[in-house]
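Title: Comparing notes on inverse folding

I've been comparing how different people in this forum approach sequence design from structure. To keep things fair, I'm posting one structure and asking everyone to reply with a full sequence. Here's the target:
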């Protein structure tokens, strides 16, 4: 009887391990859950892993993904860098939003603008799609004077950053948002992850970060 009981306990333990191993190790395959970008970009630092998020403020999916990627950003490994690439998706209001993001960045106000702007557009349904509307929003949120906003928004530095972002996204071959690029060579998005949605997108992100990290060691 004792032998039978020990055997049963051992079998149950093995079964539990097998289940946990299967559910804990999601496999991501190139060409299915992620793919190579169109043109690889050399990383700024070969010893670090660069993660880029392509988004648009007018995109509802980007708005809902933002808390997930922001939470990930707060707990990412020390050798990982995270930057956002605002996309226009070829829309006039998208260009306004690109320049809005880089204006906030240039003025050191990203934390005071990024989430509040998302909330204002998608939760409060405010029509913040023109430079005039964004100017008022900036003043209300941060106290930045209209002339300072206009000079930065229309300045060379912001224009250069928009052009660089557009060139990068074209090189990567990104046509939809939100999207993630890891190490300048791999990309994934929620559509590639199927029913897994944003949680699977974050898991795939971690997988790709580790993949790039291992490749850098070779």
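Reply #1:
Here's my take.
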């Amino acid at each position: 009887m004792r032998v039978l009981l020990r055997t049963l306990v051992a079998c149950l333990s093995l079964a539990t391990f097998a289940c946990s191993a299967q559910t804990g190790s999601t496999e991501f395959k190139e060409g299915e859950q992620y793919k190579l970008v169109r043109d690889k970009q050399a990383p700024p630092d070969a010893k670090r892993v660069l993660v880029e998020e392509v988004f648009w403020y007018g995109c509802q999916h980007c708005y809902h993904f933002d808390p997930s990627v922001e939470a990930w950003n707060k707990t990412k490994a020390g050798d990982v860098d995270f930057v956002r690439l605002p996309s226009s998706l070829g829309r006039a209001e998208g260009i306004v939003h690109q320049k809005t993001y880089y204006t906030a960045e240039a003025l050191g106000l990203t934390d005071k603008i990024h989430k509040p702007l998302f909330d204002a557009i998608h939760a409060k349904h405010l029509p913040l799609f023109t430079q005039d509307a964004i100017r008022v929003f900036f003043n209300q949120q941060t106290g930045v004077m209209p002339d300072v906003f206009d000079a930065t928004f229309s300045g060379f530095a912001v224009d250069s950053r928009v052009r660089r972002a557009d060139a990068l996204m074209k090189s990567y071959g990104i046509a939809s948002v939100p999207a993630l690029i890891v190490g300048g060579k791999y990309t994934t998005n929620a559509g590639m992850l199927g029913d897994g949605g944003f949680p699977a997108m974050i898991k795939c992100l971690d997988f790709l970060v580790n993949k790039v990290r291992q490749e850098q060691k070779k």
